[in-house]
């Protein structure tokens, strides 16, 4: 590799000026949208500032050239050339490795850059993979999420943004990730970062979550009693209902209702009391009903809450149905919230 002490001035900032660094900068600028490119340069500048705050010296404590190369290339997976069948971080890491091999970069250095790019959305993992990977991730997180922004030197972020404007970067980048995932589901595994973004843009339960996956694993595992069964806010009741229904756990479903609760399994019918509610829920379980809930709003006053959700109901052999639910919940003396009234089709 060329000398790492070489620098060049770009937009008023001193950047690594080796042949490799210049080539990587040009490659990133050629491949990515301007807002992505500017974000990539800002990520490096913020990462370098974070390193200085930590007392780390370039080319003594970390390879500054590799941090720069990884930073400017970290989002090329969002380019047309980088758009493959993997999550965008891995597509970008693979394309970057190809670029580095074409420039005769040693395999050990390529591995560092690959890790930095593939792990740049992985908190706590990137930080354990060496200083180059950690600084790349820290600079990117500072630019996207503002992590550590108050610790940057006074006026530094203003200078960076004046040279490399944001253009609502966080939302624009999120939109690009979601657009790729919508076009190609292979890029958004249900437990991946892109999958988490995509889930918000799909109908409820269109993309399974962790609890869906383990419930459908086929091993017959059942959740163990514990704190996870207690709704500590009204919002958590719907999540627990969906989780326990998916698992077919009638006991835990019934435990979400007060002893005198009213459950309305369908228009014109009502079940009152624990045993009646349990029998209505049993029918849901036996019929294989699956429900997705998207909370519309919640109003709280003291120990009472009024909730409303959009429910997507799937029953084997029947067309999918969507309803608007209405629920009343009450906080118990032990802090748990339980349903008092649950009407899945009140607005119908």
Overview of the molecule:
By secondary structure, the chain is α+β, with helices and mostly antiparallel strands. 44% of the residues lie in helices and 17% in strands. It has 2 domains: 7-196, Hypothetical protein af1432 (Orthogonal Bundle), CATH 1.10.3210; 214-343, Nuclear Transport Factor 2, Chain: A (Roll), CATH 3.10.450. A 6-stranded mixed beta sheet has the order 4-3-8-7-6-5, covered by helices on one side. Strands 1-2 form a two-stranded antiparallel ribbon. Helix 2 (34-53) packs across helix 6, helix 3 packs across helix 6 and helix 4 (88-102) packs antiparallel against helix 5 (107-118). The radius of gyration is 26 Å and the shape is elongated.
Largest sheet: 6 strands, mixed
Number of helices: 13
Query: What CATH architecture of the largest domain would you give?
Result: Orthogonal Bundle
Helical proportion, percent range: 40-55%
- Portion in strands: 15-25%
Q: Total domains, how many?
A: 2
Rg is: 26 Å
- Alpha-carbon distance between the two ends: 69 Å
SSE-based structural type: alpha+beta
CATH class of the largest domain: Mainly Alpha
The low-confidence runs, each spanning 5 or more residues with pLDDT under 50, are none
Question: What is the molecular shape?
Answer: elongated
Q: What name does the CATH topology of the largest domain carry?
A: Hypothetical protein af1432
- What does the average pLDDT come to? 92
Structure summary, number of beta strands: 8
Biggest sheet: strand arrangement: 4-3-8-7-6-5
Topology order in helix (H) and strand (E) letters: EEHHHHHHHHHHHHEEHEEEE
| Subunit organisation of the chains | single chain
């Amino acid at each position: 590799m060329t000398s790492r002490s070489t620098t060049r001035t770009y937009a008023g900032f001193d950047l690594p000026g080796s042949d490799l660094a210049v080539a990587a900068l040009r490659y990133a600028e050629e491949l990515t949208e301007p807002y992505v490119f500017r974000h990539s340069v800002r990520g490096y500048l913020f990462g370098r500032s974070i390193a200085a705050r930590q007392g780390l010296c370039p080319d003594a404590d970390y390879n500054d050239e590799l941090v720069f190369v990884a930073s400017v290339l970290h989002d090329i997976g969002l380019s047309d050339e980088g758009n493959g069948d993997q999550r965008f971080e891995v597509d970008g890491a693979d394309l970057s490795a190809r670029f580095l091999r074409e420039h005769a970069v040693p395999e050990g250095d390529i591995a560092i850059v690959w890790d930095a790019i593939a792990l740049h959305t992985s908190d706590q993992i990137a930080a354990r993979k060496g200083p180059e990977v950690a600084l790349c991730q820290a600079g990117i997180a500072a630019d996207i999420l503002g992590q550590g922004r108050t610790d940057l030197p006074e006026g530094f972020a203003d200078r960076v943004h004046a040279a490399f404007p944001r253009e609502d970067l966080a939302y624009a980048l999120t939109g690009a990730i979601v657009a790729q995932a919508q076009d190609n589901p292979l890029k958004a595994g249900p437990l991946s970062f892109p999958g988490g973004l995509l889930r918000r843009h799909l109908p409820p339960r269109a993309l399974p979550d962790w609890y869906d996956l383990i419930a459908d694993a086929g091993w017959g595992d059942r959740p163990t009693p514990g704190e996870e069964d207690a709704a500590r806010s009204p919002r958590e009741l719907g999540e627990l209902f969906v989780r326990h229904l998916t698992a077919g756990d009638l006991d835990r479903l019934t435990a979400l209702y007060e002893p005198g609760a009213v459950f309305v399994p369908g228009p014109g019918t009502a079940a009152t009391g624990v045993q009646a509610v349990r029998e209505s829920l049993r029918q849901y379980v036996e019929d294989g009903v699956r429900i997705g809930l998207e909370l519309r709003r919640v109003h709280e006053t003291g120990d009472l809450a009024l909730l409303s959700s959009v429910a997507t109901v799937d029953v084997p052999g029947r067309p999918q149905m969507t309803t608007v639910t209405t629920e009343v919940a009450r906080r118990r003396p032990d802090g748990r919230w339980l349903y008092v009234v649950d009407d899945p089709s009140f607005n119908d």
